Amino acid sequence: MDKVDKDMNYYLDLPWEIKLKRIPEERGGGWVASIPVLGEYRCLGDGKTKKEALKNLDRMLKNVIKESIEAGLEIPEPTEEEDKEEEYSGRILLRIPSFLHFLLAKQAEKNGMSLNSYLIHLLFLNYLIDKIE
Fold first, then answer.
1. pLDDT at 6
2. What is the DSSP string of 23-88?
3. Measured between alpha carbons, how far apart are the two ends of the chain, in Å?
């Protein structure tokens, strides 16, 4: 077995996350399947049925992997992090000083937001700032 075949089999056996979406009737109807980690528009297959879309995606996956290996391009692999998101409920119990609770509630009201929405907004902004640094 040559290097391309060995690598091809390795990549084909990975647990790829597949995104399956219905194509609106006004755009021809049917289904489109893609592998987001490889690029949503780079590795996709479509068809009149889900089964046909998945079959075409499998064919495209083989082509993308083969061409990437031959060109010496890095192939992103699925990560466990994608599965871990399901482990989080989205609910957090947070204890804060009463004066801070008061200040945040007033600021949320001033911005026309619920306290919960305002806290999500602040946390996400801080996350983005932290990620940039």
1. 56
2. PPGGGT-SEEEE-GGG-TTTSEEEESSHHHHHHHHHHHHHHHHHHHHHHT-------HHHHHGGG-
3. 45
CA angle 65, 66, 70 (to 5 degrees): 115
Judging by DSSP bridges, how do beta strands 44-47 and 31-34 pair with one another? antiparallel
pLDDT in tens, 41-86: 788 999 999 999 999 999 999 999 999 899 888 888 888 665 566 6
Per-residue tokens: 52 = 């046909």
Q: pTM of the full predicted structure? A: 0.57
Query: What does the alpha-carbon distance between residue 111 and residue 93 come to, in Å, rounded to a whole number?
Result: 23
Burial of 29 (0-12, 13-18, 19+ CB in 10 A): exposed
- pLDDT tens per residue, range 6-52: 578 899 999 999 999 999 999 899 999 999 898 867 889 999 999 99
d(CA 61, CA 12): 8
Q: What are the structural domains of the chain?
A: 3-80 (3.30.160.250), 89-132 (1.10.1220.10)
C-beta separation of 94 from 115 below 8 A: no
